[in-house]
Amino acid sequence: MSTPTTTPAERPTFPIGRQCPYRPSADYAAFRAEGPLSRVRLYDGREAWLVTGHTEARALLADRRLSINARADGFPALSAEMAELANTGYTDVLIGVDPPVHTRQRAMLIPSFSVRRMNALRPAIQDIVDQRIDAMVAAGPPADLVAEFALPVPSMAVCVLLGVPYEDRVAFAGPARELFDADPDRAAAAMAALTDYFGRLIAAKEREPGTGLLDDLIADQVREGRLSRDELILYAMLMLIAGQDTTANVISLGSLALLEHPDQFAKLRADPALVTGAVEEIMRYVSLVEAISRVALADIEIAGYRIRAGEGVLIGAAAANFTTALVPTPEEFDVTRSPRHHLGFGFGIHQCIGQNLARIELELTFRTLTQRLPGLRLAVPAEEVRSNTTGPMERLTALLVTW
């Protein structure tokens, strides 16, 4: 069995910061040089395995001996905020439960996220993208692409999907941010506010059904006794928050990557047919999620290493996306390729259920931006672009552009 070459006192801390907001740290090369698995130290002093090999990452994401239960002993939270999130109840559906509970929950939602159903939303999403660009053009440059485009596009799209009034965002936007607060009282208050909002929304839909995924789940699952209202509230909360936050970050970071690589932007502008495949390369290159947390339920031997039961495992999606096992030149940003086996949406039974919707949003976003704003460019030096890392994800706080 292989063993780490560092002693416990020498373990590097994780997560590691990015030198560039739209691509993983070059420091991952040192981890990969040690082997596909390394030992790292977390914010609270505990240790965990970090998996940087692409083959090993996919294998472990598909391994039922790893648990996603954030309340389990040894589960490797990446920050105090993420550790507290498990105590709010937010992770009690899909993203924090194992089979058979996960199997039952996911089966209820899979038909609603089919490629066919998501494609039916294309006209509505295209309208949203066009409206936001119209608003930017009308206001004139410069514009903050994060606030005026990247955030509202997925927010409006997921509201259409769920049947949530977009004008209600005042009621849920603030609590959605505070849910990730490390202060237990603030996180609990945010959870209570979101629970109250969705409880009232679902009650209103039961009285007067509308169109949207929540209405379908009420009719097909709640009224048939297969889904409780409490679970539906958590479903709604998860889909609203996860469905807009992750896509918004990929739009803003992907836009920055394209603007910093004008030759790649020019390729998409010249050939819109490239965009569908380019979305996969943007997902790979941006690698929004640094690591996916799991805990071992049993001993696992992989690539000459032994992960013992109870040990935390961090599937380094960002690091694995930059290996030659996925693409021959991982350091290059090349929109002419389509690396479909990237880990931007995860892998295995917990692979992102909303990936079909996200792909459509990203495709329409980058195709429309490059065609309608062919002169799009940064309005400030790249080093002045502000970013931060919340939990396992990188995000831009603003992106000033002109055209």
TrEMBL record:
**UniProt keyword Iron present:** yes
The alphabetized UniProt keywords are: Antibiotic biosynthesis, Heme, Iron, Metal-binding, Monooxygenase, NADP, Oxidoreductase
UniProt KW Transcription regulation keyword: no
Q: Which SUPFAM superfamilies match?
A: Cytochrome P450
Domain of life, per lineage: Bacteria
Q: Which InterPro entries match?
A: Cyt_P450 (IPR001128), Cyt_P450_B (IPR002397), Cyt_P450_CS (IPR017972), Cyt_P450_sf (IPR036396)
- Protein family per UniProt: Belongs to the cytochrome P450 family.
> Which PANTHER family does this chain map to?
CYTOCHROME P450 YJIB-RELATED (PTHR46696:SF1), P450, PUTATIVE (EUROFUNG)-RELATED (PTHR46696)
One Pfam family cited in the UniProt record for this chain: p450
Question: What is this protein called in UniProt?
Answer: Pentalenic acid synthase
Question: From its record, what is one biological process in GO terms?
Answer: antibiotic biosynthetic process
Q: Which organism is it from?
A: Micromonospora phaseoli
List the molecular function annotations (GO) for this entry: heme binding; iron ion binding; monooxygenase activity; oxidoreductase activity, acting on paired donors, with incorporation or reduction of molecular oxygen
Pathway where this protein functions: Antibiotic biosynthesis; mycinamicin biosynthesis
Q: Which residues form the signal peptide?
A: none
